[in-house]
């Protein structure tokens, strides 16, 4: 099984940015734990702060991988293009957010990803990625 985790803007700052919201662990360290926990699965990772690069990556893996975990960051709430990319691929996508987006600013309550995703997980910190993998395994 092949799963690709795709993280959007500012998620490269996990562990540094607003630790009261996002925690103090870097995604790089967390990814090592995930890959160890799911050693029988190929878990690849891509992060970009550029919307078009995220769309390109979805297109690259969206017909050959078994699952995609997408945390589009702030693009979740603004990018019709990312929503269309998720809709246009065959691979199931689980939308993940570290924070509880429904408990934050009103503009974060809108997602252009959700209508095209297999499911959505938010508010469980980095553990949301574990939950997403588990959902793709079922």
TrEMBL record:
Associated pathway: Metabolic intermediate biosynthesis; chorismate biosynthesis; chorismate from D-erythrose 4-phosphate and phosphoenolpyruvate: step 3/7
Catalytic activity, EC: 4.2.1.10
GO molecular function: 3-dehydroquinate dehydratase activity
Keywords: Amino-acid biosynthesis, Aromatic amino acid biosynthesis, Lyase
Active-site residues (renumbered): 22 (proton acceptor), 97 (proton donor)
Enzymatic reactions: 3-dehydroquinate = 3-dehydroshikimate + H2O
Amino acids binding substrate: 71, 77, 84, 98-99, 108
NCBIfam families (alphabetical): aroQ (TIGR01088), PRK05395.1-2 (NF003805), PRK05395.1-3 (NF003806), PRK05395.1-4 (NF003807)
PROSITE patterns: DEHYDROQUINASE_II
Name of the protein in its database record: 3-dehydroquinate dehydratase
Family from the record: Belongs to the type-II 3-dehydroquinase family.
Pfam family, one: DHquinase_II
UniProt subunit comment: Homododecamer.
The keyword Ion transport is assigned to this record: no
Protein's organism: Spongiivirga citrea
Site (Transition state stabilizer): 17
EC top class named in words: lyase
Gene Ontology biological process terms from the UniProt entry: amino acid biosynthetic process; aromatic amino acid family biosynthetic process; chorismate biosynthetic process; quinate catabolic process
Organism domain of life: Bacteria
Function of the protein: Catalyzes a trans-dehydration via an enolate intermediate.
């Amino acid at each position: 099984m092949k799963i690709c985790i795709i993280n959007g803007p500012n998620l490269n700052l996990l562990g540094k940015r607003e630790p009261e919201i996002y925690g103090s662990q870097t995604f790089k360290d967390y990814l090592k734990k995930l890959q160890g926990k799911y050693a029988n699965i190929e878990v690849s990772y891509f992060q970009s702060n550029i919307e078009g690069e995220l769309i390109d990556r979805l297109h690259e893996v969206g017909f050959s991988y078994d699952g995609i975990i997408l945390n589009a960051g702030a693009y979740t709430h603004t990018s019709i293009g990312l929503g269309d990319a998720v809709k246009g691929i065959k691979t199931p996508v689980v939308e993940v957010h570290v924070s509880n987006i429904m408990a934050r600013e009103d503009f974060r309550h809108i997602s252009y990803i959700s209508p095209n995703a297999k499911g959505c997980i938010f508010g469980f910190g980095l553990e949301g990625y574990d939950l997403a993998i588990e959902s793709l395994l079922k």
